[in-house]
Amino acid sequence: MNNKRILVIDDEDGVRDIIQITLEAVAGWDVMTASGGQEGLEMAIAQQPDAILLDVMMPNLDGPATFKQLQTHSPTQNIPTIFLTAKAKSSEQQEYANLGVSGIIIKPFEAQNLVDQIRGFLGWGI
Fold first, then answer.
1. pTM beyond 0.85, yes or no
2. Domain range for 69
3. What torsion, rounded to 10 degrees, do the Cα atoms 18, 85, 13, 112 define?
């Protein structure tokens, strides 16, 4: 089934737009977007996406806090989540990986590689 549903949670409009356009055009996936952690959490519970791309640094409810909230709700605790972060230090990446996310994509990312990165992290094949 190619028609995956992805939820993108990022407080930057431009980043959300680039990701949405890329995933829809290249992979044919359905993309939903949220501009913050609380909105994303509510959408994830209501919509049950196949995967979540979650920005680490956001105001109010940041990525790690949002991910922890997702883990406490049975409808969302098994949804694979990939962090998006500008923090490239290996120690920070390891800290995020230890939370149990499915992968980490470093910003800025190459739009043309984004689908392959997501498929690789989630084992979705090509």
1. yes
2. 5-119
3. 0
